[in-house]
TrEMBL record:
Domain of life: Eukaryota
Listed name of the protein: Uncharacterized protein
Length: 80
């Protein structure tokens, strides 16, 4: 599970490639699973959940990243 979370939390494209390579090593015994993940999840929709692409792209008119979530949460706590 940690190898998958590393993919999702990749901050650069290079980190994504490295993390995907490591994931393939960890799951080497499960080639059908790796093919499924690559063709069904990563290739078509990685831009929607891998941190590098989320932080890079505009979503619903705003850039939304981990720092903005923390900031928003802090503001909400202070305003209570």
């Amino acid at each position: 599970m940690a190898a998958w979370l590393d993919i999702v939390d990749s901050e650069t494209e290079e980190a994504y490639i490295d993390n995907w390579t490591q994931f393939k090593v960890v799951c080497a015994k499960f080639s059908m699973f790796l093919d499924y993940v690559e063709k069904t999840i990563l290739d078509p929709v990685k831009e929607k959940f891998v941190r590098f692409w989320i932080d890079k792209n505009l979503h619903m008119g705003e850039y939304y990243n981990k720092q903005s979530r923390i900031c928003t949460h802090s503001v909400e706590k202070v305003s209570e």
